[in-house]
Amino acid sequence: MKSTKVASTSSENEPSETNVPRMPVQQRSQQRVEAALAVAERMVEAWGPERISIPEIAKAADVPRASLYQFFPDKYALLARITEMHLTRLTEALAERALKQSTESSYSDWIGALIDATANYYDTHPAARILVLGGPYSHAAYLAQANMMATIGGVLRSATELKIPGVRVPQSPDVATLAVEIAFACMKHGYHQEGGITPAIRAQAVTAVVAYAEASIPGLAKAFKAGKKQGANA
């Protein structure tokens, strides 16, 4: 046992025979994790979350099983990581769209554009659709979703107040985040009942969000139209 340990230490201290610098352990681990996440995402799309496992992912990604368990104690931790990655990308896309100079003539049209952007993301990323709308599959994934809702709610509040001078979106209760939750509930219903976010579901989400927002923020619709007219005359 002792001689083996000494030999191993000596080998690690010796330069590579090829003189090629060894990749840092952290970098190698990161590449393995990224490869495994990409494979796991494809497996989720093909088989669903229930049928995959860490050993199967490791085998398909050609990475040591132990290197995955180092970061993900079970498949649900790995799925939560994929979920978090997609929610981050979706949040960034919505923030960019919400703060972009809009051409919509009504608050309803603007909300519709944001809901379309969300639905289009889920349409083009099946794994995100499965894990987010079909989940959450763990407490960690639930927390990621809750954080995403709050973040998008903050973006919606800021964008609304920026686009409509004089309007203030209440924070208690958190009207913006509740509006996001309403849209999300409509999309989850569409996923479970119709297999996706159909145009009809998108329209229902817009109706629900706008009705709630206009009831909770008096003068919102009128103020939005007035703001658009002022922008056109400027």
TrEMBL record:
Keywords linked to the UniProt accession: DNA-binding, Transcription, Transcription regulation
Organism of provenance: Pararobbsia silviterrae
Residue spans of biased composition, Low complexity class: 8-19
DNA-binding region positions on the chain: 53-72
Pfam family, one: TetR_N
Stretch list, region Disordered: 1-28
Transmembrane segments annotated in the record for this chain: none
Record-level Gene Ontology MF annotations: DNA-binding transcription factor activity; transcription cis-regulatory region binding
Superkingdom classification of source: Bacteria
Protein name stated in the entry: TetR/AcrR family transcriptional regulator
Domain HTH tetR-type: 30-90
InterPro entries per record: Homeodomain-like_sf (IPR009057), HTH-type_TetR-like_transc_reg (IPR050109), HTH_TetR (IPR001647)
PROSITE patterns attached to this UniProt entry: HTH_TETR_2 (PS50977)
